[in-house]
Here is the input.
Amino acid sequence: MRADLQERLKQVRAALARTGSDALLVSGPADLFYLSGFTGDSGVLLVESSRVALFTDGRFTVQARDEAPHAKLRIVRGPLTIGVGQYLSSSRRCVAYAPSQWSVASWKVLRRAAGARLRWRAADGLVAGLRTVKAPVEVDTIREAGGIACEVMEEVIGMVRAGVMELDLAAEIGYRIRRKGASGESFEAIVAGGPRSALPHARPTSRRIGKNELVVLDLGAILRRYCSDITRTVFVGRAPTRIRRWYQAVQEAQAAARECIRPGIAAGEVDAAARRVLDRYGLARHFVHSTGHGLGLEIHEEPRLARGQERLLEAGMVVTIEPGVYVEGTGGIRIEDDILVTANGSELLTRLGRDLLEL
Ligand SMILES: [Mn+2]
Here is the structure.
């Protein structure tokens, strides 16, 4: 078995023992990949003290054998959930599971199929918790995914001008990300011009970029399953004083948050550092989301860098830092980078200039 998988299974079993359960049922795709290597879009993993079973259907027989050779393969005919439940029904075990990975409907089916003798223990975040601290090979992959995101950002910024459609720029982003060897986008890229840039999660539209307006570009690449995430904001034309001031505030807030990242600092402290700067500019009420989030197999993971979060950062965590200012009717500014928490501080994984570009 791959050494990293062996280590992860060892850790997950130790965590499992602490909850007093005999087995862990994993259905979230990221957790499933993390513990088995399987990338098929239908599968459930059962981790027991001395073995691992992968339940999937006939479409994935070859793929599962290839990607997860250490797991005992169980090909289910009919609904996967019923197959898993029936397999478990013969035992009196206590099985841990993550409620957030099950729909209410599937959960009912699973419980019914598993019968009354089996005990269930809700244990959300057991694998997600392990995933927060990345191994060096995972960091290298995110760094590489970050490099692709930076290259695409730079190229697409070069295409921003009055008259170009948001959707055309978004299409360029998706195309270029794949041409650079990534398997896809971490999320549907955001390209938002003018007043639409004030919508933090705007979807690209057929609107054309105008003169004298802000444009927010937010994109990410998925490389070997790992995500990157970067945002830059540019101005088409010469930015008025008010916009320059907003930009400077966001830039300073982002730097303040980045600079305080180190092992042992609370996630909420990083968020507070960004908010303090924006408050000094009188812009805190226009910062309508949290400062950042963990990044890895999923685009949004633990830890959340948000108000009041007491979770302490640890070396090996990868987080985004992305404060923003959004003024309804006028526009928005966000600057986002991916950062690794190191033993002594932090390392920037998305190296791309962030001074205001006037195009
Ligand atoms: Mn982000």
